[in-house]
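Protocol step 4 of 5: obtain the predicted structure for the target chain.
Materials: sequence only (see below). No template structures provided, no constraints applied. The aim of this step is simply to have a reference model before the mutagenesis design in step 5. Sequence pasted as it appears in the construct record:
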Amino acid sequence: MRPAQSSSPSLTRVAAATLAALVLLSACGKKDEAPAGAAPGGQQAPAVQAGVITAKIETVALVTELPARVEAIRTAQVRARVDGNVQKRLFTEGSIVKQGQALYQIDAAPYQAQVAAAQADLARAQANLVAAKAIADRYKPLVEANAVSKQEFDNAIAAQRQGEAEVAAARAQVRVAQINLGYTNVNAPISGRIGRSLVTEGALVSATQSTELALIQQTDRMYLNITQSANDLQRLRKQAGGKADGELPVSVVLDDGTVLPRKGKLLFSDVTVDETSGQVTLRAAIDNPDNALLPGQYARVRLSQAETRGILVPQQAVTRGGQNGDTVMVIGADNKPVPRTVKIASQQGESWIVTDGLKEGEKVMVDGFQKLQMLPPGTPVKPVPWTPAGAAQAPAQAGAPATQPNAAGSQAAAGANASGARTPSSGSPAAGAKTPADSSR
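Step 4 output (structure tokens):
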């Protein structure tokens, strides 16, 4: 009977140990089955931060960006005005020339001969006039004394007047010959930059065919020929209350996206709509002292033709062209992001002008969209003021140290781990941190 009595306490100890093990396993199972949204130690994970702006209605200019072609403010084609061979080119291609500067020398020998012939005709006419005048002067006292007939005296007076007319005609021919001789020196009609020469020495040029020799353009000030849809122009004018364009400021955007620091002015809008394209032409002028703009160059211009009441929303906050149109995420009173369809009027810098769909004071989500995609729909967020890029560092990504504005930091990391994300490796900042549960152990 003693062996039986000695085995009873052993069985009791085994049963007690087994029961204790079951209790521990049950406790561990409950800890592992903690809700996914709860942090270690039974704490709720903090909400993900989202950068927001507060909607504010203000008067903003409706800036439109339109295509334009650059045109020199003055253009002159250098052409031959007499026939002859080009003997010399007197300018450097691509240089700046002054008005009246000699550009080409055309063979002047034929025109010098014409001047000499015209001068000889003038001398002959003057000699004939002297003889006719002497006869008229001689007949005047004789006709008074009835020594000559009245008819002879009238003929003498007529010969004198005819001689005067021939002298005048001869002088005109001399002047014409001198003008043609002067045209053998081809001078610049305006000041500006001259292009390449279109003829070489020895080329035969003709006045009747208006041979073009070169092109001069003034580029210190340029025209911008802008095209715009007639419907858009009417709409902008209607929004402006029917006010005229006036001298509106114009910004020029080059092909590489560079915006010229100086601004131009809108001069006028054409009154005729192109029947084929339905567009109207607007013209602006801008100073070009450094020749940043070249004639014929393509550019884009930004100008404000009207004003409206709207809300400026950063472009990154708007989803354009979705199934429901343009949308933004609005943070409601329960801090849950809700998509909202909005109406966009135009663009101003890096923002869209929203004219419908938002109310003043509402919070519009600008960043934090990537973090939001990791959470179930309808998950509340923590709205924080958004700061533009450059004014502050960008918001931190999930799992990064919470040292930057608008960053979720370790809070986002905790939320990611609670939602089933992989535990940080030993090299990550969160690997060495102890949770309250670890401390209790």
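Step 4 remarks: Helices lie at 2-32, 109-144, 150-182, 230-239, 369-373, 410-418, 436-440. The longest helix spans residues 109-144.
Proceed to step 5.
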